[in-house]
Write a structure and sequence with these properties.
Blueprint (H helix, E strand, L loop, with lengths): L1 H30 L7 E15 L4 E5 L2 E9 L1 H11 L3 E11 L5 E12 L12 E2 L2 E2 L18 E5 L4 E13 L2 E15 L12 H6 L3 E12 L6 E13 L9 E11 L1 H47 L19
Antiparallel strand pairs: 1-2, 1-3, 1-13, 3-4, 4-5, 5-6, 6-7, 8-9, 9-10, 10-11, 11-12, 12-13
Helix pairs in contact: 1-4
Length: 330
């Protein structure tokens, strides 16, 4: 009876031991993915800030500038692109809406971001754009991959429509989470004007005809949860200038927007709470279950060997080797 139980336990030990690497290296890459229907919004503020007055073409100090970012998954577009891409695809339609202290629009820039649901690598398909301009992204945007590594990544900048390295700077603790800190600096670069301008009658084409150009620089900072790859906090030291042309007397330059942009405290708190709940699911597939199954397999193996040893007590004759009793009349 003990020998039979030992064999059963041995079979379960082999099963759970084999299941451990399968859970980590086979199930996790296929099960961990971004849902195509995701929706979220975020509010950031620069307090104080500098804004251009398009009426006088002069910069002025304002108490705050608000940036509202919304992100909405397009499920129908994801399904359509998946048929030709041959992999799980997510399509995000995002909008960065900048409002002055009076709540009026300063600028708004829509984007369509298409990427692999598992790896977050960009997927190039019709419709990929920034402010209506077709783009071909390289690297990540908005989110890091699951199980983020301590290394530099290529990060897409929507203003310049180009990608540049974002550098890993170290590990720190943020609201009780161990996070990786990343920085990216975009040097002064000539960038397109937003297609939707805040003053009626002023269009990007009209400004460009007058020879005035828009320039931009930023220092971008992210605190990223390495398990989910989700930023739990983001900041930018952002500056834009209008330069030259007939709009600026003497061909000079004027600050169009400048400020230290930070996530509002209530959105930081809600983002951290969401990430803490999601990271448990990722850890379940990458750590808790694989190590649990491996530990269980080792325990079952030990118990199986113990039962096998108990079934073979010292000095106990082996029944299989015992001679058969003589039959009568032999």
């Amino acid at each position: 009876m003990r020998r039979r139980a030992s064999l059963v336990l041995l079979a379960f030990a082999v099963f759970f031991t084999a299941l451990s690497p399968l859970m980590r290296w086979y199930a996790f890459p296929r099960l961990a993915k971004i849902p195509p229907s995701q929706y979220q919004d975020m509010v950031m503020e620069a307090r104080p800030a500098t804004l251009i007055d398009y009426g006088t073409m002069k910069a002025k100090k304002v108490p705050k500038v608000t940036i509202v970012q919304t992100l909405k998954g397009d499920v129908a577009a994801s399904d359509r692109i998946e048929k030709t891409a041959g992999r799980d695809v997510v399509v995000w339609d995002t909008l960065s809406y900048v409002a002055g202290p009076d709540g009026k629009m300063v600028s708004e820039i829509p984007e369509r971001y298409i990427f692999d649901a598992h790896s977050q690598d960009p997927v190039h398909a019709t419709g990929e754009m920034v402010d209506g301009d077709p783009v071909r992204r390289e690297g990540i945007e908005y989110k890091w991959p699951f199980l983020t590594e301590k290394r530099d990544y290529s990060y897409f900048d929507a203003q310049t429509r180009t990608s540049a390295p974002i550098h890993y700077k170290g590990t720190t603790t943020f609201h009780g989470l161990e996070v990786y800190y990343f920085e990216q600096t975009i040097p002064w670069t000539k960038v397109p004007l937003p297609k939707k301008m805040p003053v009626k009658g002023i269009t990007p084409q009209a400004v460009e005809k007058m020879g005035t150009t828009r320039w931009y620089t930023t220092k971008r900072m992210f605190w990223v949860d390495p398990v989910t790859g989700a930023p739990v906090n983001g900041e930018e030291i952002h500056k834009e200038e209008m330069r030259g042309g007939d709009l600026l007397p003497g061909g000079g330059k004027v600050t169009a927007f400048a400020g230290h942009v930070k996530m509002r405290d209530d959105y930081v708190a809600s983002t951290v709470a969401l990430v803490k709940s999601q990271r448990t699911l990722v850890l379940l597939l990458t750590s808790y279950l694989p190590w649990g199954f491996l530990t269980l397999g080792a325990a079952l193996l030990a118990l199986s060997l113990w039962l096998e040893a108990r079934s073979r007590r010292p000095g106990e004759p082996d029944r299989a080797a015992a001679p058969l009793p003589e039959t009568a009349g032999a």
